[in-house]
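note to self: dont lose this again. the chain is below, predicted strucutre after it. 314 aa total, dont forget to put it in the shared folder this time
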Amino acid sequence: MGGECSNIPADYQILGNFAKPVFDKIYTNGFLHSMGDNAVLQNLNSNQSGGTKVDRYRLGLGYTVSQGQAKARDFYYENSELRTLPKRGVAASPSFSFTANLGEWINSPNAKQWNLTVHFFPYEFGEANIPFVKIRNTEVNGRVNNFGAVLRYFPVDSGFSFGLGIFQTNQDIYLSSYDRRPTQFRIDGDKRRWIGQNDLFYQSRITSGSIDIKYNYTIGFLSIIPGLGFVYNHGYTAVQASRFAAISRMENPDDFGSVPSAIGIRLATRHNHRSGFGYGSLGFQIGMGEFSLTTELMAGKEIQSINLSLQKHF
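---
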């Protein structure tokens, strides 16, 4: 909008119609797929079900981080304040878990071999309380609302356990930035400058089902718990970016006021998840009377997650 837009050649306006496929190449399905897998693995690890049987009840509070190796390609904001956006997907949140032995609710010897673990933690964050995003002059906020349940069976005196789980992964992340100073760009060889506002919104909504097997090897107060698992996901991850900026005059790159003109760009892409992945896990639990300290590492192809939690048995 504005008079200066008449100085933008028609072929450049036509090229603008191809901005969305370019954006799809920047945020490829591979990157969005990895972002979704990161969020799911972090949610699985937040459950804190472990591989040691709980005889009655257990409460746990922990923090989980996940990171993938897939990267976004060079972003079209390279000449704006959002050029420092993280190129790798990361997911993190605290979580609260509760585990019950089904023998406490069902009067049956077989029920004592089953544990049910549920977890949740609605979590709203900003730049001040997320350690993995530090972007100068950028407003960061969002929310994570993950929850799930794992039903785990412990065959008598075998050391093995088998888990079945269902999870819901919900993430909303907002990044907003203004240009501290006008930056240069070219239209048909003419130098222009623009200054404006940049926004990026990331969202995931994924429902997952999991199956795993773990083995518990205990030496005194230390339990070592390796395992293997598989998770199937159904949902989507999506990203939307927008930039609204004032543009300078063709004759004078420093003149923004005499012919007020502006450009708006809004792009979006989405990846549907209809697939699964396998993962390995390795957990360590230190028993301290009624309390235990647990950490568990989970790793799939190009994604890793680690959880640290403090648990109370009662």
